[in-house]
């Protein structure tokens, strides 16, 4: 989620670059599948996924405007539903993040997590919102028209998209200072979840947006301005990413220029998201810590959706098939075809593993929809929750090994490319 | 004496039940298994002292000994390390949201008797357990009967985890690496996969030292973060880097054993260890001062250089590239 600038792995595929390794007896067969066509499908799925993310974000933007104009239980609920709907396509695009620098560099603006929400608005002082490593964890922009950041006084009297993205987001280089994106909006709609690992999500009252005497939480005008600015910014950021995947967009042309590198980007994205990010940092760590702060969508309790659609996204890019929010499909020659030509067994195993992980994440989603929210699964002593979580982790770890085998089948040469940025690396699942 | 290695290998091949290959067996049998046993032993020493009295001071030396032993095996983040998050429960660091401190405070405040039993301690959040949970209880030395019992319970839990990790390796995981693809050995299907698995640990271990142990306190030039160094209270941030690099050198040697020389990697290790040895800054407090900061940055660069050299040189000898590791992603 956070864009840490730690080592970004890129697998280098020698075979497709035209320097086939002698040790790949089946290499010749892959010539029947054109890597360039695989890249086309991949970029088309990305384009469709970001376009769907944009259209659902626009619906969220409109729902937020309605909430602000007419605050009520219903309009708050409608905005929450719009947020949930917007997450479905977006999470599926996470498979594009690792491996495409243009996505990885951008994603912190829209999906940064975890966040110190006290930067944005009021929090319960007895909650875990305090972060000893972040002086701004309780800055509360909504309540303060001037704040001091890095020794400088900052005028926050007007809450604008520029203030959020330019000054506040990742203030002082601390990644927990998340001022923008889905999770900032999530916090402004749901509020803090103060139920620990017990039942219940955040319960922000709609009156937090009522102007005048009935305003709760204080500064309802500024809260409304913040929410609208964050929604506007999300739309703007997604527009930028959709354009990157257009026919002459930068993300697409980079991949087209070197299809071998493009194929490596697909595999890198699949493996890094499956293992270190999803299985590790986002899923297993929370269980080990028994800490609801480790829940990915911790305000809304919609973490199960985030995980499930991540899993679906990984499968999409491998099988070259994406079902859009309108039900239509985007499909074409796939990485799966390419791997099958090189080694059918590896392809079969990986497809099976992807089905298994989608099923395991689906079981988690089903349990959550049946009433056991993700934060409850993390609770100490919840054996059923533990089993669901461990099932998902295990499936993701297994599929990572198959991804590595796919890399080998396609003729991975070596190696890892390091990014030499050394900004303050935060906790990663080690 | 060319005949000697040949003779030896014949003899060993005749004796050993497992196929003889230089690299993976060398690492497993001569490095990993003995070092796991040594770690278990060290934790037993700590637990013995903890069970004998309530003097937190008396635990400092055995805790340090256990941590020294841990640094030799910490980078084998695979199999029994990963099961149930065992490795992280043994040493949960970094902990940027101070989860360990939060959970420990709650634990000491609640004084719930169930958590000072072996079963209860095993259920605690990993952030409150292991070497770091114990470190808080030893260096901050909270008084009272409950804190004393909790020290003993966490030390006992640590022994159990160390033993379980060792047992996991001896009871099957080592075989998976040594005899990949054999009956029931589905984790690694080929020798290359086993090699890749260990090679990945070497590279990831080097990255951990550069990015975390050194990178966290370095922060950025404008915002150095001395408080983010590892094991500050125990005064051993630099010692951890040094011991970890030595252990990774041993692994590097074992992996290359019998396959060829690794002069660039060896030189890079020697250089980094020399820099670490010359650095008189046990907790990297110098990150805030330009001159002393530079020396720590140079050390970090030297560790990254080992990674670069080992990736090329040892990767080529083994014929593999690194796989995905758990630090991929963010």
From TrEMBL, chain B:
Q: Can you cite an annotated GO cellular component?
A: cell envelope
The record's principal subcellular location, in a coarse class, is other
Signal peptide: which range, if any?
A: 1-22
| Top-level taxon in the UniProt lineage | Bacteria
Where in or outside the cell it occurs: the entry states: Cell envelope
Enumerate the UniProt keywords alphabetically. Answer: Signal
Locate the Imelysin-like domain: which residues? 33-308
Q: Name one Pfam family in it.
A: Peptidase_M75
Q: What is this protein called?
A: Signal peptidase
Gene source species: Thioclava dalianensis
